[in-house]
Amino acid sequence: MGDRGSARSGSLEDADERRRLSTLDLVGLAAGGVVGSGWLLAAGKAHWAAGDNAVWAWAAGGALMLLIAAVMVELGIAVPKTGGLIFLPLQAAGPLVATVVAAGLWIVYAVNPASEAVAMVHGLAYWFPSLLRNGEVLRNVAQPTPQSMEHAYDFSMTGVLWAVVFMALIVGLNLLPPRRLIRLNLFITMVKVLVPVLIIVCLGFAAFDAADSCKPEQVWYLSGRSGTAEHLQSQAGHLSPLYVVLGGAVIYAYIGFQAPLDFAGNVKRRGMGEAARLRWAVYGTLVGAFLLYTALQYVFGRHCQGLTGNMLESPYSQFAAAATMTWLAWLIRVNAVLSPMGSGIVFTHALTREVAALSRAHLTHRGLQTARRASFRFRGGEIDAYWMILLVNFAIGLAMLVVVRGNWEELVALNSVPTLVVYATPGVVLVALRLPEFGRTRQMVHLALSATAFVAIAVVMLEAGWPNVWRGMAAVGIGSALLLGLPWLARRDLPFIGGMFRRYDARDHVSRFATPGDPAVRPVLLFLTHLAVIVSCTLLRHVLSDDLALVPQLIVALSAAVVFPLLVRACRRYMDHVPPTLPEPRREPQEVPVTAAT
Questions:
Q1: 3-class secondary-structure state, position 378
Q2: CA–CA separation, 195 vs 291, rounded Å?
Q3: Which helix (H) or strand (E) holds 230?
Q4: Per-residue pLDDT tens digits for 322-361
Q5: Closest C-alpha among 194, 188, 213, 280 to residue 52
């Protein structure tokens, strides 16, 4: 009987292990999330903004992402939890901070598929210019009119419908069984990474005319901004690399590396173990992306004198065509549709797990992750796809698409700033938890990394510029107000709207602001004050002359350095009142050597 029970236990453990994610699966998620539309659309904007210094923007963005990743990986290894980006701030700082983080994360993950769907339409417009209102005009802007960049990429009605179709395709693919979806994503990722590698190898060594170097003002039409040619040419090359990091979509091109950490509780345990697999996936992807993006920017700067002025075609496919590499040009054109789709699939898949964690924590409607709405039967099998969450996220992405009228740059701004808001919290959580498995030296390293990342994130957000920051922060503010306000409305039978919210069963946390001494209030007030300082200094930077630009930078850096330890202390005070419930990393049993005596 005992042997049978042991065999059954072993078979269940084997089955569980087979369902878990391998190193290759995790790399597919990380690289699939990172390599999307950013590399296709950001190089021209970066060169317009900073010229040859654009390479340093990719280096600065990569360094910032590696710093943030180091903090997030350490936290994910110590506390492996699927949906941890919401669960861990909830445990360490309380439901109010977790709600702000959840609002930012939900916006990031729901907007990404919309932005990738827009990028897919841009890629398809090469063959079908009618998808854009000014499609025929954008075929050649070498002789521009002063109005040619006003709402240049506005969709026609057909373009809008195709964007909705692509969003629906991304959501529909996430209804596949999880294992099949992971395999599909791995295949798409290998293809879409191969194409930029071929660009670097083939075009990096191709002949070019060094005497006819490309100046930033020559690519004014790739800036992504509205305005006349004269105005955009006057601004070309005069923006700092730090502006390009966020305002030029560099950060947008790097985000997605955290996808393995969204599934940290579902990693294979045998062999090299969970920790090594997470490190390989995250660090390997970021280092690879850094090398890929800097090399692509070098290729752009080396060949951009060969641009034809066709805004419907990727610059890289124009370079390939100019080098008589027709086969490569066609691969790039196809990848301009495939690459964004792959990234959208990863973000949509990851969001289902994060929103499920949000729902389980009663921070949003609990019905989103009940068994009836988390899975469905198909051909006799049960598929865990969180279909209700997918529908809600599709509606949110569709609303964002309509609000910005399909503008890719505005979607990037709505994506990038909330991303940094989310990335600011793991360092606070890591230091506040004081995890016992880490020695004192390692805890000091965590403190240095986390504090540096917190300050660096604040400075980069400041450098993004007022238009990007206010849009992103407004989105976080609206999302937080909805998540906090809907439970409060649901408990009040208000005229006309009372019936609409009566079944919304998230817990009411906004009332905690009125409770004297509530330990969850201080962390969120400190965090919101920190964000308010960034927004205020960004506005100050916007109205001040360039000679005084250093003043808001110093204020933001100093404010972040002061707020970080205060926020850590407030989190520890919260955990003193409400002890956290944390999963522990699984420790493999030590093998007992077999001897004659045993």
A1: strand
A2: 14
A3: helix 229-235
A4: 888 999 999 999 999 999 999 999 999 888 888 888 888 7
A5: 213
pTM of the predicted protein model: 0.85
What confidence tens digit (pLDDT) does each residue in 122-150 have?
A: 999 999 988 988 777 777 665 544 444 56
Residues with Cβ < 8 Å from 63, sequence gap 6 or more? none
* Token pair of 491 as six digits: 């408990």
Rounded-to-integer distance, Cα 325 and Cα 305, Å = 17
- How far, in Å, CA of 368 to CA of 353, rounded? 11
Nearest to 219 by CA among 134, 300, 119, 332: 300
Burial bucket for residue 553 (CB in 10 Å: 0-12, 13-18, 19+): middle
The 3-state DSSP class for residue 119 equals helix
Placement of tokens 């390939």 in the chain: 320
What distance separates the 2 farthest-apart alpha carbons in the chain? Answer: 90
Concatenate the DSSP letters of all residues of 147-176 into one string: TTTTTTT-B-HHHHHHHHHHHHHHHHHTTS
Q: Which amino acid is at 133?
A: R
Q: How many CA atoms lie within 13 A of 281 on its CB side?
A: 37
Run of H or E including 376: strand 375-378
Q: Is the distance from CB of 229 to CB of 144 less than 8 angstroms?
A: yes
* DSSP-based three-state secondary structure for 28: helix
For residue range 387-434, what is the model confidence (pLDDT) as tens digits?
888 888 899 889 888 888 788 878 887 888 899 999 999 999 999 988
DSSP single-letter state for residue 508: -
**CA 441, chain centre distance (Å):** 31
Nearest Cα neighbor of 305 from 546, 99, 142 is: 142
- The answer to whether the CB of 376 falls within 8 A of the CB of 110 is no
Minimal CA–CA distance to 159: which of 137, 130, 139?
Answer: 130
Counting Cβ atoms within 10 Å, is residue 324 exposed (0-12), middle (13-18) or buried (19+)?
A: exposed
